[in-house]
Specification:
Elements (H helix, E strand, L loop, with lengths): L12 E6 L9 H12 L4 E7 L3 H12 L4 E5 L10 H5 L5 E2 L1 H15 L9 E5 L2 E6 L3 H23 L3
Parallel strand pairs: 1-2, 1-3, 3-6
Antiparallel strand pairs: 4-5, 5-6
Helix pairs in contact: 1-5, 4-5
């Protein structure tokens, strides 16, 4: 779609790291996401590190929805039993952006080959806000933000938010 479909919208971001082991001091992926948003002149209004527990993830999702219209969860998207981000977030999606996961996996093949089938990266819309769930590796964060989310977020929000 051409950019003439975009409305002038302000973008604010939330970055949420889901991990049982990361702390602010060693959350390189969370810091990278914040830096990339900042470089794109998108203010980060919320940053949290939370445990891989459905209720905790849902609580921070609610908090993020109140202060940002672009919410990025990093981590907790794998196949291990304690990876709970998708299970906690996806039921709240009003609309699913299937193309996000498809493009993310397509772009990831060059870096990780057929292991890309383990990726459950997904995105959706909740209340006119875009929510992205991506793997917690720094490479995945850079790929998702630089090549997909930041270039498309104004277009996404201009369509998803109430007019």
């Amino acid at each position: 779609m051409s950019s003439h479909h975009e409305r002038e919208v302000g973008i604010t971001a939330a970055v949420i790291t889901v991990s049982t082991t990361r702390r602010k001091e060693d959350d390189i992926s969370g810091k990278t996401a914040q830096e990339l948003f900042s470089a794109a002149e998108i203010p980060v209004t919320l940053y949290r590190i939370v445990q891989d527990q459905d209720e905790v993830i849902q609580d921070v999702l609610d908090e993020a929805l109140s202060v940002a219209n672009c919410i990025v969860f990093t981590g907790g998207t794998g196949l291990t039993p304690d990876d709970r981000t998708i299970e906690a977030v996806a039921p709240s999606f009003e609309k699913v952006m299937d193309g996000f996961g498809e493009v993310f996996r397509q772009k990831s093949v060059a870096e990780i080959g057929s292991a890309v089938i383990l990726s459950r990266a997904t995105a959706g819309v909740i209340g006119g806000r875009a929510v992205f769930c991506i793997p917690g590796s720094t490479k995945a964060v850079k790929l998702a933000l630089q090549e997909i989310i930041i270039p498309q977020i104004r277009h996404i929000i201009s369509h998803a938010s109430p007019r």
